[in-house]
Structure formats: C-alpha cells, structure tokens
Amino acid sequence: MAVMASATRALLVALCVSPTGCQAPGNVIRIIDAVNPDGSIALADVVLTTLGDVAAVEGSVATFLGGAVISLDSAAPIADRGEARDDLVENAGTVRARFVVDDGVVVAADFDSLLMFSAYAHFERATLHLGGLGATLPASPVPVYFNPTLQNGPQLTFPKSDNAAFFAMTDAFVLLPMRILQEIPFAMNTGVVAHEVSHRVFYYVGWNGGLFAAIAAHQYDAGAQQSFNRVKATDEGVADFFAAAITADPAFLAKSTPGSISDARDLSVTRVLDPRFIAGLEPQQDGQYDPYGPGAVVAAALWRLAQDHGVDTVEAAVIDGLRALSSQLVQSFTYQFGDLEREVARALPAADCAAACALFAERYLPVAGAFTGVCP
Amino acid sequence: MIVATALFAVLQTSAPAPACGDLDLQVPVGLGLEGRADGDGFDAAAYLGLSAGLPLSVCLGVPLRLELSLATGTAGPPWGAGVDAVEVARQDVDLAALTGVAYVFVKEGDKGLGVEALAGPRLRLTRVRTRIYAQSESRYGATVRAAALVGPFATYKAWRVSLRPGASLPWDRRVQLWLGIGRSL
C-alpha cells in the first residue's frame, strides 16, 4: 500500500498535477554520512548550501570531474596552486549524476551518484568547518577527479584503486574506485574526506601555498629530506586530528578499512614518539618513508588535548599554529617533531598552555625538552 | 507472465492480413547504452517490452500508427551495484504513448516493407533501493520526456517485425535499439 501511494504520488508530481507542482531538484540531498554520536554511518538528508548544479555535482566548494587522465610523471612540470594542472590532467569532463526527486529530496539513482553526492557533502562540511576556524583556502571551487585514470601510478607506488587523496601537484582531489575494500567507501566516509581537506589546509596555511617552490629552493640543503619527512608525518597527524574532530570519532578510519590499518591510527590510543622516528628516516615501508606511524602520535596527542581543553579551541589553535609555523617551513625548510605543537600550545588560551606543554612533553618524550619555556 | 500469456494468445490465432481496427501486439527486445554518472563512457543494458499498436492505414488509408508500450531493462542495474557495505539498485519502467507515420513503400501480396517514425510522451517510473549494511530503503521518482523511435519494419500477413533506434528529449544519455516481433490480434 505504501509502495502504491509513493508511486502514485511520484506520478502525479511528474505530471505536475500535485499541489506542490513538478519537483525540480533542490538542495536537500540524501547521502551516506556519519550521523550518530558514536560516528555510525547511515543515510541522512542534508542541505548542501554550496551546491549549485546537482546533476553536475558542482558548487562553490568543489567541482566533480570525470574521465580524467592524470599523468603521474616524476619529470612533469610542477607548480604551486594548481598552475600545472593543465599539463598533468587531460580529458576531465562534466559528470552527470542520476537521481530521482522524492518528496523534495534528491536521491541518487546509482552507486557512483551516491558516492559523488556524499563526497560533495563531506567536502562542503569540512571546508566550511575549517574555514570557520580561520583556514583560508582559494575562493574558486577545487576540482575533484572522480574515478580518474592514473598513468605511471604503479611506477610511483600510487594505487589505482581504493584511495582518496589531495593531489598537491594539481591542487585537486582524487577519488579512486573501491575495488578491494568493501566497507564504507572512502568518498562516503565523512572523516576520510575531512582528512583530505585538511591536507589542502596544511598546504595553503602551513606552506602558504608554496610547497613546491620551497622544495625547489631547499631540496639540496643538508637534512632537507629528513625535515620534509617529519613535516609529512605531522601533516598526516593533523589531518587525522581534524577528521576525528569533525566527526567526533577518533576511529573514523575503521568504518572503511580493516583493523590492521585502522587500529594503528585510532586517536583514542595513547601513543609516545619512538626515538627512532626523531631522525626523520624511520619508519619505512617498502623502502619509502612511512609518515603514518609518527603521524598517529601527533594525532593522538592533539585528540587528547582536545578532549581536555575543548575540540573547537584546539582546532583553532592548530590552525593558528600552522600559520605561525609557515615562515619557518617556507624560508628555512627545517622541521623537528614538536615544532607545530609548541605553536599550538602558544595559541591556546594562556590558562591551557602549561597543561598542553606537559601533555606534549609526555607524548614526545625523546624531545620533551622542546616544551620547556614555551608558555609565558 | 503477462508477456507469455500475450504471446500465447497471439500465436493461437491464424488471422491473415490485419483488418480495420485490429491491434497488433509486439514484444520488443532491445539493447542500449546509458551514460555513466562519472562521465567516463557508457554502460550497456538490455531491455524488454510489450507494445500494442493500432495501424490506421487499413481504416483511414493514411500511413499513421498509434502505439502504447511498456518496457523495462537492466540499466541501473536493478540487482544493485556497490560494495558489501553499501549498494544502490534501480528499476525503471517506461510507459509511452507514441504516434507517427508508418509508411509501407514496398508491397507484394502479403509481404510489405516500410519505415516508421513515432514520437510521443514517455513516463519513466523509477524505484531506487539503497542498502547500507543490513538496512535498506526504497524511494520513487518519475520523469516525463518526449520519446522518439524511427526505423524500418516488415510485414507478412499478420506478422510484423520492426527495428527501431530510439532516444528521448531532453537527452537522458540513453540510446536504445529495439527489435520488435508482433502480430495482429
């Protein structure tokens, strides 16, 4: 009976007989979202205030593009702020999401459309949230390459599937299809998308949008690689922190990955910096620096600080800390574990600074001395 | 079941050429291409339909034809696509009322060969089922578009075979090629 009623209602609306008239797609979209206090994933209706074209999944925050061929060529020209995008990306075109409008709600009519709607919602939420904390991003919508083809990916150990990434070389995001992992896809995971948006914030606030210029200027400096590795690890930790803060879920990654991956990044676990990480050459995986181990220490410390002093307060302090760190990164290309955390402690309300330094000294034990004399 | 019953009824009769007022019942099968949501190419789909046509040429001497049709297919797909945790399934049912020209340009006894061009409104009823883990929900929508079919047809006594490429306006990124086999009732 309910089925017949719904179908009849849809028929009448389609014929413009309904009192509400023919339904054009509005901005109430049904997506996959982390909606419950415990971070559970469910269907939810959200109002996307920045979405301008529903079918093209295009708005002031992001523009989804399909059919892109991205060249991952280590010899390709690199420029900051996406200026080399045209050299690295070809064939990118408009997507056309399929949907029905039921009771004023846009409902995706295929899996890819549900992925895109959900991802756009998560991009909007994270961008507006971090922007509200003072993170300044370019005003133009960021490209999101959906299911692109990656050339030379295996040669550069970049996966062909099961990944979501901020691709700094094009100042864009990449959402790859899920072929191996069968849990909540990364594009539908609110925390994962927030993690990637955080990387873009780190690029524009921490590096002042000049990462590649800084690399070009300092790549042959003594210790440059080690400093860069430590920054990458800190970047990963900050991204996990913002993801957990936005979703209120320190285990956001567990919705999408097996425990062998997500357990090592659970922010609720107390983690202390391994002395072997200090040099910036370890840990390694498959012969390359692995930033996630030390990054998990950064994330867990910030999460603990947020639980003690308020999530919004610590988030804002992290943004301010990145801003304060920017000149050091760009001009000297030097970084030690604890540099960002000292700036975060200074950016907190004065009453919280000493406690923050005490927490950081515990978690970054091998470099605990870096946190003395920080607070006024 | 409906299709089988109709086919049985059609095959039972042994009527010669159609007379005025005789409907013909067709079972069209089709193949089509539907544009992918990610904008990267097309997915193939198969379709099945049932249509009732009224050729006005016998009654009025003008090469006009009216047709009502019902069709569904594998575009969606109706059995669902996604990952273990999340899946989306879509079923479309199209109802079309078409009118147009069906012109026989070769006629030899009981055999005929012609070309037809039909157009008219097409109502598509869509059911979308979204599953996340063990919970699922169904939502419904409807769209109206103008459908157009054009192609050759052949007749032999009461039998009719047609081949029709078709599309809709506004463009819904779906093209179809229909093979219809039917008979006058």
Distinctive features:
heterodimer, A: 376 residues, alpha+beta, 5-stranded mixed β-sheet, 3-stranded mixed β-sheet, 11 helices, 41% helix, globular, B: 185 residues, mainly beta, 8-stranded antiparallel barrel, 2 helices, elongated, disordered N terminus
Topology:
The complex is a heterodimer of chains A (376) and B (185).
Chain A: H1 2-14, E1 28-34, E2 41-47, E3 51-53, E4 58-59, E5 62-66, E6 69-71, H2 85-88, E7 89-90, E8 93-94, E9 99-102, E10 105-108, H3 111-132, E11 142-146, E12 149-151, E13 164-167, E14 172-175, H4 190-206, H5 211-218, H6 224-247, H7 259-262, E15 284-285, E16 288-289, H8 292-309, H9 311-332, H10 339-347, H11 350-363
Parallel strand pairs in A: 5-11, 6-12, 11-14
Antiparallel strand pairs in A: 1-2, 3-4, 5-8, 6-7, 9-10, 13-14, 15-16
Chain B: H1 2-12, E1 24-35, E2 42-55, H2 57-60, E3 64-73, E4 81-82, E5 86-108, E6 111-132, E7 135-156, E8 159-169, E9 174-184
Antiparallel strand pairs in B: 1-2, 1-9, 2-3, 3-5, 4-5, 5-6, 6-7, 7-8, 8-9
Distance between the termini of chain B: 18 Å
Taking the sheet with the most strands of chain A, its summary is:
5 strands, mixed
**Would you identify the regions of chain B where 5 or more consecutive residues have pLDDT less than 50?**
3-15
Distinct helical segment count of chain A: 11
Structural class of chain A: alpha+beta
- Distance linking N and C termini of chain A: 70 Å
Shape of chain A: globular
Sheet with most strands of chain B: 8 strands, antiparallel, barrel
Helix coverage percent of chain B: under 10%
Count of strand segments of chain B: 9
Strand content of chain A: 15-25%
Query: What Rg of chain A, in angstroms, do the CA atoms define?
Result: 22 Å
> Could you state the oligomeric state of the chains shown?
heterodimer
User: Using DSSP, what is the number of strands of chain A?
Assistant: 16
